[in-house]
Fold each of these.
Amino acid sequence: MIEGINIVLVFIWMLVIPFILGNLESLLYRSGEFTGIAGRISFGYALELAVFCLLSVPLIFFRAPYAVLKWSFIACIAVLCAMSVPLSVKTVKSLFSREGSGALWRGDRENRLTLTVMAAAIFIIVFQTALVVFTMHMDADDARFVGEALEVAQQGTMLSVNPLTGEVTGGYDGIPKGVPVGEMRKDAASPYPVFLGMLSDLTALNPAVLSHTVLPVFLIPLSYAVFYLTGITLFNRDRQKTWIFLLLLSVIMLFSFESEFAPGYTLLNIIWQGRSIAEAVFLPLLFYAFLRIRPENGIKAQDILLLLIINLDCCLLSGTAAIVAAVMTLAYSFVKACAMRSPASLVIMGCTILPDLFCLVYGQYILKAMYRL
Amino acid sequence: MGFLKEFVLDIIHLHNEYTSTAMYIGVYFVTVFILAFIQKKDGGFRELRINIVYPALLMLFVIYFLLPFIKSLTDLGLDDKTRARTFWALTPSLIIALGFTLFISTLDGTYKRLAAIAAAAVILAFCGEFKINNNVFQKSENLYKLPGPLLAVADEVLKEGGARLIVPYETAHVFRQYSTDIKLLYGEDATILRVIPARREFIKACDQMQTEAPDLGFIKDIAKENEVDYILFDSVYHRFGGHDLNFDGYTEQADFAGDRSASEEYKQITRDVKLIDDGENIYWDLSGFDMEYVGTYGQYLLYRF
């Protein structure tokens, strides 16, 4: 059952905290353009996951108790939120005082078209969200991801139990007991299931309920929020074009079920899994981060920081996401650096894939060698 | 020649793995091609080339050439599923929507644009596959989004605080998402060898449980040795003593595509199993194998050792 307290906790962790954290973006882009609530919340999620990635990978390696991870994460988020609260107040004020916010409601023909397209896009997005929330689609991969999260939430252990059977791992052939073996090595390098377990703990919900019923409510709109940001940037803040773009994207998602790798399938069937979140939210966010880098302005420290944060997120979410993020980062860095005629920029932007490389080497080779698997 | 053939076949395989029957990648290619060649007088599309066309060409080179080349040459590299997911780097749906939007915005007049949006939506719909139906999206029975009868089984075995179960593997993933107090003899570690491959005798038990008449003598012994508390049978395909219990016409779990038939040797082991009708339920009498009937939950029958 989901009770009132669960709803409040979910609201706090899935909306309020990402929004507050997201306002730190305005420190990065002090003179930059205002990205609205979509930008704030997207950046907030990115920052939250990056912090968790930086804390969880070493703590899992050193087999620290789960409580250490949980409280250190809460402490970091609390400090970041404290830094961000004054900015959040400013953002909320500016949201209500922005000029031209009512311009869409003026009744000329152009605006009527924009409103029609916007209404159609929102209708499809709400339909898609409701579809996932009110129906069920079973995926056998959840036995691993949700099973590991359940161990975190109910037992307070991290990747020390085989999620398929419930037996403690290791303890044979010289392998220490309770270490991530086999496929679990991938989760030690990309500990999204541990994040899911911690979120379950913080919201007092079973990970299966959280994944299958609650997360889609936030993740599907979040995905479209990132698409909105992309559209606004691509079309130079032209709202009509942006909403046409979103409407067509939402149509593609409805019909993109051709394979288990298709974007529609990942968005509307398994959005709670780490690699799906990467595909639907963070890889498009990476694309958006590169759109923000304009060759004529050169490369800035804040751009690099944003790229680094998104690459860290992809590492947390899945090894596959880390590979794809690395490919994207290298391709875009090369083109942008060529456009800037600056080899140094290529090196600097290229360095943001270091977390991805570490994630792959750590999961595939270091842990394997350590535990003689 | 062999290398070249293998290389080309691998590229085709990779392409088909991602695109399957849809045409979105084709539309993506066309969009990138058009974006590469259109040119405004003021040079306004240079930015699009930098942001979309050139990175796309680089990534296409990596996905379609470099990764298959490395695999063909060294037999190393990413597995098929991971390689298929590298297509995500292209963000094809974003680029396709962008292309259509740019085209629509070149039209003057509200009605022309509306008509173009409708036409674009129809084209996009026909390029893909619509699979929103009862097979893919079933009506949810609970907030866990897991089958209700299996959660009822889980609640039953949890009455004593926790238990170890033998279950048909198609149902295994449900239990471990519900409670950590439920342990299983095997799950997908016995079928596709996930996480770590299960012990050989557990794989044999799993194989037995997938047939219509498992060797209950073997199952009983392995259950005793490994402190298993309960066993779950599926009335859709399990038949002991030739008795079929699928009175309600339940259908088989969709993800099993193997052969359920058991050899005569194994059928003989349970040929003397009788049916019991206690007025409420009809079930197999498996007391000869130290299994005591607990209850029926939808299509599933639960027994205690």
Amino acid sequence: MNNGSVISLEHVTRSFGDRLILKSVSLNVNKGEIFGLLGPSGAGKTTIINILTGQLSCGGSAEIFGVSCGKIGGEVYRRTGAVLDNCGLYERLTCADNLRLYARIHGVAFSRIKEALALVGLDGCEGKKVKALSKGMKQRLALARAILHKPELLFLDEPTSGLDPATAAEIHSLMNDLRRDGTTVFLTTHNMDEAYRMCDRIALLSDGTIVECGEPGELCRRHCSTSELRIVAVDGEKLSIANTPENAEAVAGLIRGGRLQSIHSSEPDLGTVFLRLTGKELDK
Amino acid sequence: MKTFTAVFIKQVKDSLRNLPSLMVILIYPAVAWIMITAMGSQEDMSGFFVPVFAAMHCSFAPIMISSSILSEEKEKGTLRSLMMAGVSMVNYLISISVFVVLAAMLTGSLFLMMDHSTSSYAVTFTLAMLAGEVLSTLAGLCIGIYSKNVAAANGMAVPVGLVLALLPMLARFNDGIAKAAEYTYSGQISHLLEGGDVTAKAICVMAAYFAALWAVLIFLFKRSSME
């Protein structure tokens, strides 16, 4: 395990029956960074979170705070928090009762419940039953539960999936606040914009293998040296040409001939990087 | 201890807001009371109804409640959240079991208020109910661990619970069923609740069920931990 690494995976493998889900995954997550695991649905992102949180066994070496994930105990769990794909909230209980349960488990004062709810924008919802909350509010409550005990490491499994843009923006804002406070965030997502804007580093996961890892901007520069122009002609024809000086005359010709209906520059993004490396769309 | 307390308190609050659970745990004392009250003016039927419904209560209610609590936690992802907060499965199962047995004992004690027997019978009654509730809770936990969701758990718990609950009553009307009921723990519990002696056979049957249910629970627990 590297110095400063909070999470370390080396040649991690995992099968379900005959299906090999993780082939040989190696990565490190440093203290205080937001690390994004980006990949399409079914790539193995949630499986990695389950391994890291001690819910699944695996081949290879998986460590969290220097402790093997197969031997995680109460001490490590007290240093971590998680928001999973399924909120895992007690629908019949109130928001405060849900948080009181975890406050008791972690030995946190009940006064912290109000603070945590305020942090996620749910102030005044203490007495509301969870089943009366919207999906976005439930996700924020799950986030409040995860940060209740001020964990050093936070796992966020698709935290904004299916949420409206305003709620997603609030969750992003909270993630930035957590980073400022020194919390390490391990984020899984298939949303390339989210990964690009939020993460210090990302790993691209495809078919159980890490195909690339690094800073989002650096990855885009490395794999997409040129941008493209996407042109739609008046007759509906769609053209995609490289944004280079050599193509300037061709574009000018379209304009002069009155054939141009729309023109957009296509900046290199993580979706393009993923497509180039795997031949697959990221959002699928 | 703090995880035990946390899960136990959560379960008390959750169950008080869960109408189907409340109905399951109150239905047999309520029906017994209604029957005894309805017959009250003609003759004292408490000696008949109390053992019958008490045997049903301690056989059926803990199976239904413990299996539905566990399977619902699995289905909704709340159990996974608890595990990821450091609650061990063993701690969780102990908290839930204690809650189910206490809740069933509390509502089961209503039967004693309907009966007008001696205090020595009350002791035998309480111990027999306790034994039945512990065994039924173990059976319910086995079903809950095995099932992936509430529907699957109910699909198993209802027939198992009904067979165990109804067998002692049906045994009163059919000798063949009576013979079979002797080899079920609910049959033996019913025998004790009716004021029967504590026989070696009763102890052996209940001990065998206890050992078998523990073995199944440990097997299913290990299997689920390896997934």
